[in-house]
Amino acid sequence: MTTDNLNSALSFKHLFSKECLSRGESPIKTTMKYFLDPEFHFLGAGMPPLELFAFQNFSFKSLDLRKYTFNEIQDLILNKNDKFEDYINGDIIEDELDSDILIERALQYGNSRGHPSLLKFLKTHINNTFKPIYKDWDILVNNGSTYGLESLLRIFCNPQDTILLEDLCYSSTIEAIEAQRINTVPIKMDSEGLVVEDLEYKLKNWETLYGDLQKPKLMYLIPNGHNPKGVTLCDGRKLKIYQLLREYDIILIEDDPYFWLQMPQYKKPSLKDNQFIDENKPENDINSNQDFLNKLSHSFLSIDTDGRVIRLESFSKYFGPGTRLGYLVGSKEILDNVWNYHEVSLQASSGISQLMVNGLLNRWGQNGYLNWFKRLRVVYTQKRNFCLNSLYKHIQQFNINEYVQVEEAPKAGMFFMIYLNINKHPDYNQKLTELGKEKVVAYFENLFFEKFIQAKLLLAKGSWFTVNDPCHSVIDISKCMLRGTYAAVTPEKMDNGLKIFAEIVNQEFN
Ligand SMILES: Cc1ncc(COP(=O)(O)O)c(C=O)c1O
After folding, report:
1. How would CATH label the architecture of 14-380?
2. Which GO BP terms sit in this record (predicted)?
3. 382-509 belongs to which CATH class?
């Protein structure tokens, strides 16, 4: 797509932190271009000699996803029990592919923005998927989204600045923000994600509600398969949110590691003659890449004309968290400043990890990469459906409907959320009088957590993910929350774990 008619991003220097503004560019970075010139007498940088690198060869084996159509891949997964017959063997000794990152480059300093062939692949991928609509958007490779967020906090925030979060949030994000002494203000969520009216109300009435608290510079959202709530922000709300961010000059951090784990809608099983009927058909409705893309939600990148959206991308949930590889997508000005921070912290992401990921991506090609996501979608759909079917079955069998609410079925990601109606617990009133409003939820949350642990079941506590409002108590004292995941659990453990859950709830409430 030509970018000739597009506008450039706005400058957001006025929102940068003092730390960021005082940090310059690393002078040595500007000399790297000479290193690649064989005519050059390069005595200027402390690079170890190639002949002393210990590794000679890297090879990897992966499924060959190049030649299958979408329907074939689905048949392979659904009918052949996931046994692919073809593998790709990547052997990176010499330049097997022009796009391969040679070992001598992977192990050396340099290319701290990301290796050029990987950047090229990812840029095409982002363009094909989200089609950013301003000219100077860019990519910066990093060590995944946890690091990506930490780096962005440093670029934008001074201590006592304010960031808007959803009222439940990934716990590491909360911890990273608190460690930098940045204030958080929660915005309500419902089963369709962030509640726009609450955002608008808080921004409009900031002084009345929050007094002297700094006006927010940043907002952080997990739009698909929210961690921990499991919900997905509906597309219909995005434009209004973006307009509010423009009006109040706020930068958006879109942390979206579950984007490619989007699934078809889940249908709750129906009950006939005391038997559950699974209404979910094996997903079978995708005919082409375009059809697949059309079924996915939109990124804020696709409506961002200003360059105020920074998207955190991560390979953790697609290729494995140990790759420690991810990247930022955003305006060049902002990413240049993050890059300066990388120079004094991360330096560059692991060259070996980039070599592997780049080698695989370029062997698969853009279509093969989409085929991989298709595979994830089918497998995650099966896992989610099994989990929720089992949950509803046990709730019914133990007759605990009255005490348990299940959040809207996830349309993406790996998390589901359960609410316990603790106000129906026989000890609730006594504990409320004894402990007061502040402590009653924590008491019951702890009680259930410990009972589950004794029975060898782990569900995460909702309070680990709760964003406290600095000026107003927003706690709902009638419920406690529990987060579960179906990602890496066998069907037997899932079914048994949910049976334990239902048994304990039954014992406690009845
Ligand atoms: C919302 C969210 N962001 C980031 C991460 C971590 O990503 P990474 O492994 O890329 O640091 C997680 C992992 O659970 C997550 O749920």
Report:
1. 3-Layer(aba) Sandwich (3.40)
2. aromatic amino acid family catabolic process; lysine biosynthetic process via aminoadipic acid; tyrosine biosynthetic process
3. alpha beta
